[in-house]
Design brief:
Strand order of the largest sheet: 1-3-4-2
Helix content: 40-55%
Order of helices and strands: HHEHHEHHEE
Structural class: alpha+beta
Strand content: 15-25%
Distance between the termini: 44 Å
Number of strands: 4
Length: 159
């Protein structure tokens, strides 16, 4: 029985280690990029317009979510990789700061317009479900890397 328990523990550990998201920030140097506020506002407007057409509420802006969305966008730029790394940590911090019951995020890159990122999310079942979900607050971060590629992070919060 003890051997079986140890075997199961090893399987759980291996499954955790091989998951697709990293839950610790390594020694990556993360520089802060400038926000492209016009695209952020456009994407927030497009998402909220879509939500109203399907009978969902308009999402309110969250300063706390914006802080974490910006950090994650900078992280993705420094990694030169689209990812949800450290999402569990980010979600826990947001939840504790604003008493959220649920946190989710969508990320994108290489779209040149807010509508392009929105359409990409709309065409993905999981991203669409998040955009159309039962949330109350959101924040959008859009930044550009040194090559001119745009990175997007939108965090959704239910308070």
């Amino acid at each position: 029985m003890k051997m079986r328990t140890q075997y199961l523990a090893i399987l759980v550990l291996l499954g955790t280690l091989s998951s697709c998201t990293k839950e610790t920030i390594d020694n990556t140097i993360i520089s802060k990029s400038e926000n492209i506020e016009s695209l952020e506002l456009q994407l927030l407007t497009v998402v909220n317009d879509h939500r109203t057409t399907i009978g969902q509420s308009v999402l309110e802006f969250s300063e706390v979510a914006y802080e974490y969305a910006n950090e994650h966008t900078d992280y993705m730029i420094s990694e030169n990789n689209l990812n949800h790394d450290n999402f569990s940590s980010r979600a826990s911090k947001i939840a504790s700061q604003v008493n959220a019951v649920y946190v989710a995020e969508n990320v994108a890159r290489n779209y040149s317009t807010a509508n392009g990122a929105f359409q990409g999310w709309l065409n993905s079942a999981s991203h669409k479900k998040t955009m159309e979900g039962d949330f109350t607050h959101t924040a959008v971060s859009v930044k550009e890397n040194s090559k001119g590629d745009y990175y997007f992070t939108q965090i959704f919060v239910k308070q």
